[in-house]
Fold each of these.
Amino acid sequence: MARANEIHLGWDYYQNAVDYMRSAGHHKPSMLMDIEASRRTEINYINGKFVEYGTRAGIQTPYNTTMRSLIKGIEFRMEARR
C-alpha cells in the first residue's frame, strides 16, 4: 500500500519494524490505556490512515476498517456515559 501511495519507507523498514516489535517487551498498548482512562484514542491516526491510503490505492483494508469501527464504537459509548 505504501508503494501504491508513493510513500518510500526505505529498504530496511520492514526488518527494523520487526526488530522493534520483538524488542518492545511485554507492555500495555497506549490505545488500551486511553480506553481504560476514558480518553479518545489515536485510532484515526493509525488504522484510519491505513484505510485512507487503501481507499486511495483501490486496496481493501477489512481488518483496519473493522478495528477502527470497533474502537470508534467504544469511544462513542464512553462519550455517551459522560
Amino acid sequence: MSSVNKIVSVCFLIGLLGLTTSCSDKNEHGVVGTWLLATRTVDIPFDVNKDGVFNTNLIAEIDCNERETLTFETNGTVSSGNEFSNVLRYFKDDSTNVYSINVDCNKEGIISFASEYSIIEENTIKVSNRIYVLKSDTLTTVYKNAIDIYNEDFTDIIETRDLTQVYTKQ
C-alpha cells in the first residue's frame, strides 16, 4: 500500500472513529435519562406559604409546580414536562425591607418544550443556548439577572437576582 493510501486510510479511520465516538457519547453519557427539578432558588429567603419558615428554594415555598422534568434521549433530544407556568412578582417592602412574592398559580396551564442538546464538555450540556452543568446526580443551570425585584408598588425595578435551577436524576 502506498504512503498516500495509508494516510487516506488512517484519516478515514480517524474520521469514522470520531463519528462513532460522538454517537456513542450520548448513549453512554450521564445526562441521558429523566431529571426532576429539585430546587429553584433565588439568593433571598422567602416565606410565601406563610408557615413562618423562610426558604431560598421556591419549590418549598410555592405549591403551584407539581412536577417539572427534563428528559434527555440518546438521539440528542431533550424534552420538558410540566414546566412552571405561574406568574411570580417579586418585591421588597419599603418599610420593613422584607422580600416577598405575589404568586398567581395556574395549575391548569402547562408549558413544555422539545429541543436538541449537545455535549460541550464532559460535564457541560447545552440546550437552546442555555448551559447546564452536570455534577454527579445533579444538573444545574443559572439564569443570570432573571429575577426583577420591584419596589412595593411595582413601579420600579430596584434590583435583579440570578435564578438557579437544580435537577436530580430519577
Amino acid sequence: MPDNPIIESIRLKVLEQIDKTEHLIQLIPPDLIAWSPQWSSGSFDVGHLLGHLLECFAGFCSVFYAAFPQQFEDALTLRSLPVNHFCKPEEAIARVLVYKKYIEAGFDLCGDADLERMLPTHFVPAESVMTLLLGNLEHTVNHKYQLFAYLKMLGVPVGTRDLYVWRGSEESTY
C-alpha cells in the first residue's frame, strides 16, 4: 500500500484520462480538424476543442503551482503556452506530453495531507486541493467525452475501450 493512497488513486485516474485523451487525439482525421457539429453555433470545432483540452491539463498544473510555488517554479513557463486556441493534433499531442510531465511532478510533491489545504481561486475565496484536482478531472473527462462523441459523429470507429481503461485487461497499464 502506498504512503499516500488517496493521492495515488487520483494520480492514476488523472494519468488514465491524459493517456486516453492522447489516444483519441491520434484518431482525428487530419482533413476534419475544422469540423464542428451542426446542432449549435456555440460548439467547438475539433481544433478549438483540442485547444480547450490543453486548458484542462493546464488547470492541473495551476493547482500544483498554487500548492507548491517554490518546488513548481519552472512550471511558470507553461503560462506562456496558448490554450483555448485552434490546435492541430500534432501540437495537441506534443503539449499533452509537456503537461503530463508537470502533472506527474505535481503529484510527486503532493501527499494525502495536502488534499485538505485551502488555496485561493478566481471563483471563490478558497477551495481545497482535493476539490480543485477533482474539478479539473471532471472538466477533462467531460471534454474527453466530447472529443469521443465528435469522433463517433465523424464515422471514426471508436468504442468503449477508446474511452476507458479496463482493469485487469492486458491493455491496462495501471
